[in-house]
Amino acid sequence: MQDILRERYRAELSRMSMLPYxxxxxxxxxxxxxxKNEQCTWVDVxxxxxxxxxxxxxxxxxxxxxxxxxxxxxxKYNKLGETFMPKDMETIDEKYNPEGLLLxxxxxxxxxxxxxxxxREGIHLExxxxxxxxxxxxxxxxxxxxxxQSIEEYSVQRDKVSARPGHSEHxxxxxxxxxxxxxxxxxxxxxxxxxxxxxxxxxxxRYPKWKEKITGYNFEPWHYRYLGKELSQSIFYSDLTYDEFxxxxxxxxxxxxxxx
Length: 260
Ligand SMILES: [Zn+2]
Hints:
Blueprint: H1 2-14, H2 27-36, H3 42-51, E1 62-63, E2 78-79, E3 89-91, E4 102-104, H4 105-120, E5 127-129, H5 134-142, H6 151-158, E6 175-178, H7 189-197, E7 203-205, H8 212-215, E8 223-226, H9 229-238, H10 242-250, E9 251-252, E10 256-257
Parallel strand pairs: 1-2
Antiparallel strand pairs: 3-4, 5-6, 6-8, 7-8, 9-10
Bound molecules: zinc ion.
């Protein structure tokens, strides 16, 4: 039965080969993924396998080669180096950042512009976590471990809410946690304003609701990632996560990364 299905899938998949992000070297992985996830469309199968979702997270990891790009993708399959710390970080205006936190230049300008716009509508936004170094992320990742737990047991739950060092978007200096680290933030005036407006200022909601399987993280209504206005608007209207958008439109097999 599986063999008949496999043959059918092979034929169906050959019709998908015109997609620019179809990677012929991953043909067998696409078919195996489809066998396990029959309800998935081919477009999604190809996207998910390209992201790396057919493997357990953290198993196959690529080292990021362009850490200064504003478009970099950092996730459980793409890692920053231990020593990477952006050189163009600046302190955010204290009105929106009582703790003296840092963002990269472009993200800092855009964040302040967004906060000022929100303020005009009676919404107060505040950065509560921005840049985190590799070593600080280690501390955060391990902060709840107990002496009776093995690291493997601990990781099962911890991986859903916290990144392993090198895999945190906060290390890019382009991510910002805003106001409140509770899922109920979604229902506040501030959370709603951000969900509908942040893309106009260059930020996207990085870990949306119902997309946990793709991003690998629980819904985080407070975590926003700077990508620039043009890209954030395209992503907002595409209804894709950044992992999906990046894998379809910003990187291609044989051509590699499609941006400067
Ligand atoms: Zn965050």
